[in-house]
């Protein structure tokens, strides 16, 4: 079981305090909805947990991961995969982007090849697989980035507004991929302004309000009671 634990955090930009956190924990097997108004600090919190930013004070610790390679000085980098709402893609084709992280995976080559083929189909990118990733639309880019994460099956994944830019059909495709990652046990932090089908997969909520973060458990998790059918209209995500 892997965990990222943030304790006694204060985050400021210049003199402005953005938020404080007593303690939050992102763990394998948990799916957390991160809520908060525009500018409240959702992206900043994800970047802190990903090791891309340092808190003004406090500690973020990683538990249960393999020991660091000698050349890696930042102990948080690479622990939780962070997907920005405008995801970074490599120069090259759609398929190249899906294959690029293979060398960093613990999965076997066979399994990675199989998963890559399935991911292309799940993300409905088959007809575009040789096309330059840079030429994709915003929604297609997000689908590709989530498909890439699905192939890698990370232990922890943070999705920043994953369905912004997406039409309902794309949202359904993403929902199916996220649901599978959840079944596999990937711990996820999903930021979204609104409650929707995606956030109904969550079993915990972190709310950034009044410059602090409150955590609460959700009463039910529909994903555990009803398997997702992407044709099923109840799982269409509201814009
Ligand atoms: N590097 C930075 N330097 C100074 N201020 C910053 C920096 N990064 C973010 N901020 C400020 O911190 C605040 C929180 O930004 P953040 O992007 O984390 O909010 P958010 O909750 O993700 O917003 P949104 O819902 O609009 O995406 C904003 O006011 C932003 O301008």
Spatial order of the strands forming the largest sheet: 5-6-7-3-8-9
Binned, the helix content reads: 25-40%
Q: Bound small molecules, which ones?
A: adenosine-5'-triphosphate
Number of helices: 6
As for the CATH topology, it is Rossmann fold
InterPro entries: AAA+_ATPase (IPR003593), ABC_transporter-like_ATP-bd (IPR003439), ABC_transporter-like_CS (IPR017871), ABC_transpr_CbiO/EcfA_su (IPR015856), Metal_Ion_Import_ABC (IPR050153), P-loop_NTPase (IPR027417)
GO biological process, one term: transmembrane transport
EC number: 3.6.3.55
Protein name: ABC-type cobalt transport system, ATPase component
Walkthrough of the structure:
This protein has six helices and nine strands; from the N terminus they run E-E-E-H-E-E-H-H-H-E-H-E-E-E-H. The chain has 239 residues and is α/β, with parallel strands linked by helices. The protein is 27% helix and 26% strand. It has a single domain, classed as 3-Layer(aba) Sandwich (Rossmann fold). The C terminus is likely disordered. Strands 5-6-7-3-8-9 form a six-stranded mixed beta sheet, with helices on both faces. Strands 2-1-4 form a three-stranded antiparallel beta sheet, with no helix packed on it. It binds adenosine-5'-triphosphate (ATP). Adenosine-5'-triphosphate (ATP) binds next to helix 1. It is an enzyme of class 3 (hydrolase). It comes from Shewanella psychrophila.
